[in-house]
Design goal:
Largest sheet: none
Number of strands: 0
Helix content: 40-55%
Strand content: under 5%
Radius of gyration: 23 Å
Order of helices and strands: HHH
Length: 87
């Protein structure tokens, strides 16, 4: 039999976990840091560091890496139901 304090504490921990899930924050990871460093080196080698704005450097780097897609805005809705459908 659990004590009332232990029961309340578990409930509190569950509430804290739920709040952290709902109000999550961005966390810098290894991949983000690696891409940022590679992009900086690429911008220096292409002479863009002193002449271009950051957003232009990001766009040019993504295009050079082949990360852009024609006609893709990033606001498209993905519905896995239609993946198996054929015309």
């Amino acid at each position: 039999m659990e004590s009332c304090i232990q029961e309340t504490r578990n409930g509190f921990e569950m509430a804290v976990d739920e709040v952290e899930r709902l109000y999550s924050e961005n966390v810098k990871g290894v991949q983000e840091e690696t891409v940022r460093k590679e992009m900086k080196a690429w911008a220096i080698s292409n002479g863009m560091v002193t002449t271009a704005e950051y957003k232009d450097i990001v766009s040019a780097y993504a295009k050079a890496r082949g990360w852009t897609q024609e006609g893709f805005t990033g606001m498209e809705v993905y519905d896995p139901f239609w993946d198996w459908q054929e015309d």
